[in-house]
């Protein structure tokens, strides 16, 4: 599948430099970056679903996120 992506000059320049440094195509750098991003997003989604589905109390959420009360 092909996807068209428009990049600003700064991002395009950085992409070019990374691709050259790694000795791979710009498309390969973008594939790797997208795979990593999607894996991290999926992981975060699973974590968030665990919190929401368990219907934690406010006290439990505060403990998890170490919220301090005045």
Mean pLDDT: 82
Question: How far apart are the termini?
Answer: 54 Å
- How many β-strands, per DSSP? 0
Tell me the major beta sheet: none
Q: Pick out the low-confidence regions.
A: none
How much is the radius of gyration in Å? 20 Å
Shape summary = elongated
Quaternary status:
single chain
Write the element-wise H/E pattern from the N-terminal end onward: HHH
Strand content: under 5%
Helix content: over 70%
Task: Specify the number of helices.
Answer: 3
| Category by helix and strand content | mainly alpha
Can you tell me about this structure?
With 70 residues, this protein is mainly alpha-helical. It has a domain at 26-70. It is 71% helix and 0% strand. The protein has 3 helices and no strands. Helix 1 (9-22) crosses helix 2. The longest helix is centred in the middle third of the chain and has 29 residues, at 26-54. 0% of the residues are buried. The model has no long low-confidence stretch (mean pLDDT 82).
């Amino acid at each position: 599948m092909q996807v068209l992506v428009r990049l600003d000059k700064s991002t395009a320049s950085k992409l070019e430099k990374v691709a050259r440094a790694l000795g791979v195509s710009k498309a390969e750098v973008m594939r790797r970056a997208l795979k990593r991003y999607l894996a991290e997003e999926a992981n975060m989604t699973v974590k968030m679903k665990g919190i929401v589905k368990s219907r934690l109390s406010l006290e439990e959420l505060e403990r998890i996120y170490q919220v301090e009360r005045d």
